[in-house]
Amino acid sequence: MKSVSRRCFLQSSAVLAGNAVLSPYVPAFPAAQKPLRLGGPIFLKSDDPEELARAHRRLRYSAAYVPTVDIEDTAKINAIRKAFTAQNVLIAEVGAWVNMLDQDAEKRRKNLDYVTERLALAEAVGALTCVNIAGSFNPKHWDGPDARNLTKDYFDATVENCRKVIDAVKPKRTKFALEMMGWSPPDGPDSYLKYIKAIDRPAFGAHVDIANIINTPDRYYNNTALINEIFRKLGRWIVSSHAKDIYGKDGHFAETMPGRGSMDYVTYIRNVTSLPQEVPLMLEHLRTPEEYDEARQYVINQATKAAVPLA
Hints:
Mean pLDDT: 91
Order of helices and strands: HEHEHEHEHEHEHHHEEEHEH
Shape: globular
Strand order of the largest sheet: 1-10-7-6-5-4-3-2
Structural class: alpha/beta
CATH class: Alpha Beta
Largest sheet: 8 strands, parallel
């Protein structure tokens, strides 16, 4: 190989530096990071918005899933918004977990109506996002594998579904987002960018769940690079994130709670808190208060290790 002169090296470095300045993506770790807004389910049996909001703060949560409320109950929606704001608890997500690609036309119609209603609730209560998965063409499992999930029909139908839901509600405060999945797109940052471009709606955002898309040895063993890539490419669109973990089990990958897997949580937390917008990190999929206690404490410890305080 020919040697490279010092002048050529410096010129090349200057070009790379200039491109970095022009990049639309946020830096991975800026000098000043935001406090972490951690959230998760609580186990308080109460319908009182003020009690629920205070219970979140007792657990050191500053983000929450939406409490149970009907879209028609305007008084309770207003009470939830007021009580949680008073406690400095952001309502992070309204879930809409149904298959928008169900092969039964009537079920698909009802599912889209439900997602539209959930987005309307998110807007009314002031949640950051209403989130769902794109769905699947799998006839038995709404999030299962199917070769047709990689086709143009899947992509076009998902774009149409997202536009239809957003255009029906026209949200001003909340975003509609798709959760990345291992068996159905969007399944990574480049895939997600294609949906963002095609859907072409300001009210469409990005939702991050790293554990969901660690589905290859490369992503598993190099998850630090995967985390950085996702936040570098999707940063300005990210509205919420999930806190889970992943580990190898009997020749496949299995989900587990934070701290029992191999995810680089210091890098994850630093990326979440480096974004220009506030993005909550939400615990999920655990069964008992004790499991959530363990997971919450692990994330708090990792935030301390990353020198990131809690909000």
